[in-house]
């Protein structure tokens, strides 16, 4: 049971920030990662469509005998997490709850901004999560739909990315928020740009590390932490695995030996 892998999925590259955090915190754990590059981005798609993709990926991962499933996609976490929990008997960790908790612990003014895809912001998931944790908090939510394609294109620190960020975040800067939740796992890649735009008085919160800690806590509680070295990571993509591997190496800080192609039926 302990040797069973951790399953992680995202709409594309962004969830690799969660994979990196999980692997750093839990280096003995085997991991299977799925990036749905054929359907990225999820944020502009309907709840029904995202849920269908998420269920198919969850079925693929659970068939590989995973012991816990991490939804490393904010949009899928917002619209499909509850459905996935009903369908599969293993623990399911979303990225919204850990990130919201960290933001509530970080803010000093009680003003928390969140940026994400259209689907995530439209769901109101972060606003609900923050208010559940910190009563009276003020949440400023802003969709930033162009960030995901910019990351997927590899334009992480280009001028066009900074101009886009300045356009999106002008309203957030004026709100007086002292904490900014990066409500999409693609967004941590843009931290250098976002820090320049927001300035040093605003703390950026990405949920990768807090999600990794949530995974560790669950596995520890269930006595499922693997204590053997030589952990293995298998990575799947639903389209163009060569390109995925090339861009993934920049996020992970090391090359991927192999990315397997697994097309979805949906």
Shape: globular
Order of helices and strands, N to C? Answer: EHEHEHEHEHHEHHEHEHEHE
Our count of domains comes out at: 2
Kindly state the percentage of residues in helix.
40-55%
Oligomer: single chain
CATH class of the largest domain: Alpha Beta
Computed CA radius of gyration, to the nearest angstrom: 17 Å
SS field, number of helical segments: 11
Structural class: alpha/beta
CATH T-level fold name of the largest domain: Rossmann fold
- Percent strand: 15-25%
Unreliable residue stretches: none
Calculate the mean pLDDT score and round it. Answer: 95
- Order of strands across the main sheet: 4-3-1-2-9-10
Instruction: Give the CATH architecture of the largest domain.
Output: 3-Layer(aba) Sandwich
**Beta strands, count:** 10
What characterizes the major β-sheet? 6 strands, parallel
Amino-to-carboxy terminus distance: 31 Å
Q: Overview of this structure, please?
A:
This protein has 266 residues and is of the alpha/beta class. It has 2 domains: 6-94 and 209-261, 3-Layer(aba) Sandwich (Rossmann fold); 96-207, Rossmann fold, CATH 3.40.50.1860. It contains 11 helices and 10 strands. The radius of gyration is 17 Å and the shape is globular.
